[in-house]
Specification:
The chain is of the alpha/beta class. The protein is built from nine helices and ten strands. The strands form three sheets. Strands 1-2-3-4-7 form a five-stranded parallel beta sheet, with helices on one face. The longest helix is centred in the middle third of the chain and has 16 residues. The protein starts with a helix and ends in a 13-residue tail after the last strand.
């Protein structure tokens, strides 16, 4: 009863309840984008990018939704980009462009409402650790559109400023919204079950995950390798992936969150 479908039945239209929009008079039009961009609701509702599905389905079944674009205050652009990138094992921006972004841009530029207010009323959600950089051409809509993001900074891959910094700001405080990454309801309940009182915790600190010793792409994440050096101290439990990580977290006073390959991490 803690699974995603039970917790969020509106994902599959399993109820006819219009979700309350907290008494707002705002009207939101939800675009009906090409099916391949939002066609894996169950598969994409799990994991750190689950908000791609949940926000889309919430708005589609909400009291603030309008089916008349003429009366819309905002236009929501649903797209399960991070899920598609991950589940289909895309290798680079070129593959993502042909499978995700080119079809999306073609669709949006065919809509008269896309140009009505220079996209100032259009909302995009980026649930990726790269933030909006999951779309290599996000600058097409960055200046005016509203971004909902899990991280305010983007990596500077393949950019001249990489000489000076590995991340840059890609959000605007006057229009964008930063949200937390998604934690599955069942995982949240599991963490609560293993959450010991402070006086009963046996470990000082813990971290388990990827680092240079078990993943080549993390070789430049020096802080993670330094964390592994703490293993020799009493009360410190660090290393690679383990099946009982939630138990270890609940048994530690501190949970380390060392930097990885992107600004955001689901360790949070």
């Amino acid at each position: 009863e803690n699974d995603t479908a039970h917790t969020y039945p509106f994902i599959f239209g399993m109820d006819n309840i219009a979700r309350d929009c907290y008494n707002t008079n705002v009207k939101i039009y939800v675009y009906d984008v090409p099916d391949n961009l939002t066609g894996q609701s169950l598969n994409c509702a799990l994991g750190q990018w689950g908000t791609e599905v949940l926000l889309h389905k919430f708005l589609a079944h909400s009291s603030c939704r309008t089916t008349d674009p003429k009366e819309a205050d905002f236009f929501y652009v649903p797209i399960y980009s991070t899920c598609l990138f991950t589940k289909t094992e895309m290798q680079n921006d070129r593959e993502a462009a042909s499978m995700i972004w080119d079809p999306l841009v073609e669709f949006l530029t065919s809509q008269p409402w896309f140009f009505r207010r220079r996209q100032t009323d259009h909302i995009f959600l980026f649930a990726d650790g790269q933030s909006a950089r999951v779309w290599d051409s996000y600058d097409l809509v960055r200046s005016e559109s509203i971004f909902i993001m899990v991280e305010s900074k983007c990596p500077t891959w393949d950019e001249p400023m990489r000489r000076y910094t590995d991340i840059k700001s890609c959000s605007s405080s006057w229009k964008d919204v930063i949200m937390p990454g998604y934690t599955d309801h069942a995982r949240l309940m599991a963490m609560r079950r293993h959450n010991r009182p402070s006086e009963s915790r046996e470990l000082l600190m813990t971290f388990h995950g990827r680092f240079g010793g078990n993943s080549d792409v993390y070789e430049s994440c020096a802080v993670r390798d330094r964390v592994m050096e703490l293993e020799r101290f009493d009360g410190v439990d660090v290393g690679g992936f383990v099946p009982d990580y939630l138990e270890k977290k609940g048994n530690a006073h501190f949970c380390l969150i060392p930097g990885g390959t992107s600004p955001w991490t689901n360790q949070l």
